[in-house]
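Could someone model 3,4-dihydroxyphenylalanine with this protein?
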Amino acid sequence: MTDPHSNWESFDARIRAAKTADELAAIEQELFGRKAGAMTLALKSLHDVPDAERKAAAATLNTWKRTFDELIQLRRKELASPSDETLKSADRVDVTLELPQRERGHLHLIPEFIREVEEVFGRLGFDVAAGPEVETEEFNFNLLNIPRDHPARDAQDTFWLKTSKKDMTATSLPLQGERLSEGNVGGRKGLHDRDRKNPEDRLLLRTQTSPMQIRYMQSHKPPLRVIAPGKVYRKDSDATHSPMFHQFEGLMIGEDVTLANMKAVMIEAIRTLVSPTAEFRFRTGFFPFVEPGLEVDMRWQGDDAASREGKWLEVVGCGMVHPNVLKNCGIDPKKFQGFAFGFGVERMIMIKHQIPDLRAFFQGDLRFLRQF
Ligand code: DAH
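Reply:
Sure, complex below.
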């Protein structure tokens, strides 16, 4: 007879350690096989046990038998469901894993601000227009009451373009604000021959958005309200000047538009676009295309204030449109009057966000750009 205590423990250990379903089935067969299973034989051999011991022996065997049944069932289940280890190698895609968020870009500070400008002035009833960055001397200076020998030209150190007559029609730079086709008065086509009536008229990169006043007034009848945002160019470069920067021009012409209206519009725009508590001041300034002319300075805010000259930064030029300019556009200055203004976009943003150096806008440093 098989010793009932012989190797039950080792069966127990082997079942727990079985690595595969096949291995487990083999152990089960060894234990419960109909002919030669160890447990089958042990149970059969109970007949030979003396009466006095049989009961106890049967009880022990039955306990083992139940234990093995349960253990085998349990182990079978475990082997059927894959372990973490198997999962890690067999199924590498864990759909429940939290992934880091995809990085999303955003508009650069400047176009973002210009959109706000369009919205704020849109609410005040202003249209939006875009025009060419390559301009004629006529639009950029002459028609704005700045003739060739006028000292005001010195204030705007100009990039002149070397051109021949045939270049004229080919001058078509892509324009900002093309989506605003309704107000486009230089148009997608850029400059045209008809823009240069005078063969002496030279080409330049516009030094200001003010030529848009002329373009708009020549193609629209008053009363009118318009803003024209865009790039302008001057030979300048330091912490508050860049050879390319952004302005937006504004123009409001009607029968009774006054300086008081202008101040109201300026104040509303500055408070909405920069901050309701922005500090600013109006003072007289000279621009040949307005009379009287004013400048708006804004108080520099932030740590660097001490290093900023006088703590005021000139941000806006404005005034009542000069009668000569109205005449140049075929508008009767006895019947119509109004104001014009030109805002420096970068400078407004510098004050809004306390950015000490304007050149940061154009260096493409992500550490700077991501802050906004
Ligand atoms: N165009 C001037 C400049 O860039 C700014 C300016 C001044 C615009 C007065 C205006 C104005 O419309 O009325 O310096």
